[in-house]
Amino acid sequence: MGVNVCPLEYNEHIPCHPSYVKHSLDERKRDLERHCPLPQERLFCLVPPPVDYKIPIKWPISRDYVWHSNVNHTHLAEVKGGQNWVHEKKELWWFPGGGTHFNMVLLSTLKDVGCGVASFSAYLLPLDIQTMSFAPKDGHENQIQFALERGIGAMIAVIAKKQLPFPSHSFDMVHCSRCRVDWHENDGILLKEVDRLLRPNGYFVYSAPPVYRKDGYFPIIWGKLMNITRSICWNLIDQQVQTAIWVKQENESCRVQNAEKKLFGVCITLDRFNSDTMYWQVQVREYWKLMGVSKTDIRNVMDMNANLGGFAAALSTFPVWVMNIVPVSANNTLSSIYDRGLVGVFHDWCEPFSTYPRTYDLLHASHIFSHYQDVLLEMDRIIRPEGFVIIRDEESILLKVRDIAPKFLWEVQSYLLENEEKIVKPLLICKKKFWAII
Description:
The protein has twelve helices and 17 strands. By secondary structure, the protein is of the alpha/beta class. The chain folds into two domains: 109-261, Vaccinia Virus protein VP39 (Rossmann fold, 3-Layer(aba) Sandwich), CATH 3.40.50.150; 270-432, Vaccinia Virus protein VP39 (Rossmann fold, 3-Layer(aba) Sandwich).
C-alpha cells in the first residue's frame, strides 16, 4: 500500500505557515512567523499538484516566464502590475523587472527583505552575487512561490519577534524596497537584527516613503530611523529620490556598548577545507552522470545537511542556486558556508521547512536519516515532480528507505560511490513521479 494523497485543496500546503490572517494581532507580525503543528496533528499524505500543473520552465527562461497554472493566483498581478512585478500573458506569468536598481561592486552575499517576486535578486545574478530573498506568507499572494518557480533563491520568513535563522555577520548588504517593515518601532529592535546579520562595512539599502515623503507622519518616522541608525553606529552615505543607503561602520569604539557575541563556530583547518572541496567536485560529476541530466535540467537545489558547503561550492559553475541547510543537531558550520560566498539557514528537520510544495529540483540528503527518520514526507512535499533525491547514509538505513520510497511514488536506483574515506559505499538516487489527481 502506498501513502494516501491529500485532498486537492491542500496543493499549496505549508505546515508551519497556516493561512494568512488579514488583520494581524501583533504589530510585529507575530502571526506570520512559523507556527508548526504538533507531530500528531500534521497531515500524513502526499501533497498533490494543482490542476493543469506543468513541469516548470527551464532556467534561464524561467527568470522571465513561468506557467500560469503552476502559480494560479492573480491578486499580486492586480495590485503590483503598476510596479512591473508580474503580468499575465496568456498561459504564462511574465516578470518584466522593477524594484530598486543601482550599481553594486564588492558584494558577495545579499539579503532581500520583503522581496516581492525577487526581481531584484534576478537582476543581481549576472553579477555573481548570491542572494537570499525572503518574505512572509501574507496578503501578497504567493510572492515566494513566484520567486521559487522562477528559479530564484527564496524562502518564507518574516522579520518579527524571532531571530532569523542566519548566523551573525553573514551579508554584505540587506535590501528593503517597500518591504512593509516598521523599522522605527520598538526602539529599532528589527534594525538591530539587521545589524547582527550585516558584516562590518556592510550596507542597508532602504527604499520607501519615509525617505522622500514630507507629509503626514513620514518625517517623524524618518527622524526615528536616523536616531536608531546613529545609535547602532551606521552612517548614512547616500540619499537620492526614494532610496537611502547606510553603511555599518567598523568602529569598535562606537559599537562597544552594543557589541554582540558571534555564534560559536567550529574550527576548520585549511587542509580539511581543500580536501572537502575536491571531494565534492568529484561527487557532483558522478551525480550528474548517474542522474542522466544536463546542467540546465536542474535549477533549485537543497543540501539538507550541508556541513562545510562543499557540495554547493562544487556546483558553482552550474546554473543552479543551492539552499544550504545546517541542521540544529549538527556542528555550527553556517558561518563558514557564508564565508565561502554561499547562502543557507539553520533548520530542525523534526519540523517542516518554510517553503511551498514543489520547490526543489534536487534534494541532497547526506546522513540525514541517521538523525531524522521521519523526513521523507517533507522531502516529497518540497521536491518537484520528476525531481531527484540523492540519499547517502548507513547501509541499513538505505535499505529501509529503498523499501519505503516507492510508497511515495518515487523511483529508486542504488549505486556505489567512494565516500570521503575512499571506501566504496552505496547511495540511492530517487526520482519523484509526475502524478496528479484526475
